[in-house]
Structure formats: C-alpha cells, structure tokens
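Hey, quick one: can you model this chain's 3D structure?
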Amino acid sequence: MQLHEVREQVPDGFVHSGAAPQDTVLNLRLALVQSDPAGLEKALMDVSTPSSPLYGQHLSKEEVEKFVAPSPDSVAAVNAWFAENGIEAKTISPAGDWLSFTIPVSKANDLLDADFSVFTHEETGQTSIRTLTYSIPADLKGHIDLVHPTVTFPNPFARLPAMVPAPKIKPAVNLTSDAVPASCSSTITPACLQALYGIPTTPAKVASNKLAVSGFIEQFANEADLRTFLTTLRPDIPPTTTFTLQTLDGGRNPQGANQAGVEANLDIQYTVGVATEVPNIFISVGEQFQDGALEGFLDIINFLLSESAPPQVLTTSYGQDENTISRALANNLCNAYAQLGARGVSILFASGDGGVAGSRNNRCTNFVPTFPSGCPFMTSVGATTGVPETAASFSSGGFSNFFAQPSYQASAVSTFLNALGNTNAGKFNPSGRAFPDIAAEGDNVEIFVGGQSGLVAGTSCSSPIFASVIALLNDELAQAGKPPLGFLNPFLYSTGAAALNDITTGSNPGCNTNGFPARAGWDPVTGLGTPNFAKLRTAVGL
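Sure thing. Here's the predicted structure for all 542 residues.
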C-alpha cells in the first residue's frame, strides 16, 4: 500500500472524539485520474483569451469529456480492485471520472489502510467521520486521483448573511437622471446599481441566454417575496417576473413565508431584479448530496456538465476556508470549473466575508484564503460599500496556498506586491493565485424576506450583482450573433480592466492585522474594480 493523502493535524476548531463505530456505513466517492487536464486547461485559455484566434469558440460537451474521461486502463484497474473486494461502484459524473460506493467503517479502514474516527466541531457540536491519512494499492497510483470524504473536513463556518431592518428612508426606485440618488449611500437598491454602474433597464431579448443561482443548505427562494421586491423596487417590470427551478440531491423550494431564506432571496432578487428579463434559474441542491463535505459543490457542477446547454452564467454565494479541503479535492473541483468554463459558462463566486481571515473569525496568525476563490478557473467577487465606493472591510481576498498564480494576472499582481513592500510578509503566499478578481456593492443591500424589508451585507450580495451584468452583456452579444463571454478572467485582466471602476480606498482587516489595502490597479480586496456597463459593452466588442 502507498500513502496517498495525509492531513498533518486536525483542522482548527475540531477535536478527535474516538474511533468511528465499525458498522457505520460510509458513502465514499473515488475520483479517477483524468486523461488530459493540461489539454483541458489549454483549450479553456484558447477560447477565453481575447487575443486568441479561438476566442469564443467554446467546446461541446463531448469535446470536454474527452479531456476528462479516465483511460480504459484506469477504469479496468480500479474496477478489478473493487471486484476483488466485493464492492459495487456506480458512475456519478458525465465523463466517468467519479465513482461512488458504500462500505462500513471496518471495511474502509482495511481497504484504505485508514483510521476513520469521529471528529467533533467544538463550536457547533457537529460530528463527522474522517481519517487523517489513507493509502491505496501501489499499482493504482496514477489511476486513482483521490477518495472522498477522507481528509477533507466539513465547513461549519458556512455562515449566512445577517439581515438588519431597513432604515426609514425612501429607497431609490425609478431613476430620472444619471446622478446617483443620495439614499444610495445608506441603502442599495437595483436603481442605485443602475445609476452607479450604468446598468440598463431595457429587457433582455434572448430566451436561450440564462443566468443560474445556486442554492445550498436548505436555503429557499420565495416567490411572494420576489413579487414584493419587484413591486417596491423595480415597478417598471412585471411583478410576475420570476425564475424557474431545477433541483438535485433531493433539493426543493417550499414557499412558506417562514421558509424563505435570506441568502436565496438575496441572490434571486438581485439577479431577477438587475438582469431585467434574463431567464433566471434557481438550482436547489438538497441535503442528500453525493459529495460529502462539499455539500453539493461538486454535484451541482456534474449536474450542469451533464446538460447539453448549461446556463451561460452561474453565481454562487457560498464558500469555505481553503485549508478545510484536501489539495487533491480542491484541484479536482477546480478542474470541474475549467470544464464548464471551456463550454462557455461564466462561474462567479463570492470571495468570503472575513477579510484576510477567510470565512472565519480572528483566531488566525497567517491569512486564510477561501475556496473556491483560489481556483484560477473561476471568477471571485469581492465587495465595496457606500457612494462613492470604497472597499468593504469584510471583503475576503488574498493568495491561495494550493494554486499557483495564473499568467493572466501575473502583471497586475506584481504591481500590487511591489507597492505593498514587506507589509505582512510571511502571512501569505505571494506566488499563489490572487483573489478577488472584481467587486460590486455588498453592503446595506435592501431585500425582502417573509414580507419584510431589511438590509444585508456580504460578498454574497456582490456576486449575483456582477453576474447580472455579465448576463446582460451576454444577451446583447447573443443578439449580435456573438458567443457568450464564458470564463471571464483572461478578458478581465486584459481588455476588460479599463472598463472597470478602480477602487483605491479601504482595506480588509483580519488575523489581528489591517489586512491588505485597496489601491490603484488590482488589489486583494476589490480585485480590478466594479462594473462600468458602457465601457464593458465596448470592451466586449458591442
């Protein structure tokens, strides 16, 4: 047997609570080594880089699966190993690179030379069965990428944004001029975003151009609240404008007023309410997830990869600290984003709400990067606050410890690091993938939940807002017979950079430091800046 993955210590906040009961059944998944991840990355960059002759020529489902499908040798070797051990596995991804199987703890310990134990999260009391190391037969090295969940721990800090009552001022509704209404400095509404960013109110026209919002952890999007939101804050569009529902892993979307989720409502209200008439999909991922500690993160990507025409934009307001997830698993998930990106999907994630402390509090000495923002094949969205905009202090940003800095951002990041000098040296990895990439308003954002209006804050406001801008650009591109923007970063760091409002004030404190400063050019608080719709239209060739 050969040691395959190891976690040096129990992650911060968890304690070892003894051996796992031998007869407990584990739902395990196995990732087979993909045939050509380097080829996939090259194809992704070719279709996503404006200066490339292949720009916009996105790949088909079958073309992407060719890069990802494991070799017949790997499939045969792993199946033989399963058969030898009396295990039945089933394929759970469209390219055949993920398998699932169930075995009791006793058998898992033998099969993987592991020590599955119970770990308790001290603050929440949540328990999980994990192992700190596992091994695989030496002859399966090169065939098995990873087994999960083994050394990846759950993410107990998947906190949701808190809602505070809306102040008694009259929020901005229909605009009469380009000036930003005074109320926007204390309450952000769709009209404020239209004024600040020049977002058009004209309805989108292309039915096949879609914008998807992912919903996790039993967060439900409420249609009555959406209607109230539109009636109050977007009276110029039909109050019946709504979204379609897709579900997986036992997902649902019940409509009781007390079941309305702050996060789900926020995401839907600021996609339906900003991307006027773009067909909107709410994807509710249930609690029967097939991917263990990832709580549906991988399942939703496999779900979309299996569609022949996935939505052109996906926004997700959830994330976790990078150090809770194994490097192999982070890599595998990041490659799944590359697969969707190569097919022309823009993937946006909120960067996190703990400043340089990631998604948690100040119990850190070194800065804590978040996942998936460290993945170079998705777009990470930070937050701003106020009018004029300044960096929001909670906006997570920094440098991945897992992923190297991609070439598309090297020049922008080195300019920042040169200006930073030795500040906080040693607390972050300057050669890591740097995030966020972009930002949008994320503070004092007005939403409706259970019939009541309130204000929320977080990068989870910023991601759906920027996703709406991309969806509206895609609609205009489609009307002009052009392909969607797809994976955004090579565009954003080249021709797109000048089409963003550079945010140069504020910082993101955490870990008992002032964090990073926002400054001219890219910075790890607000990225390259916030959208300027008119300039973006020109930059994308409209």
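One thing worth noting: The CA atoms of residues 51 and 491 lie 9 Å apart.
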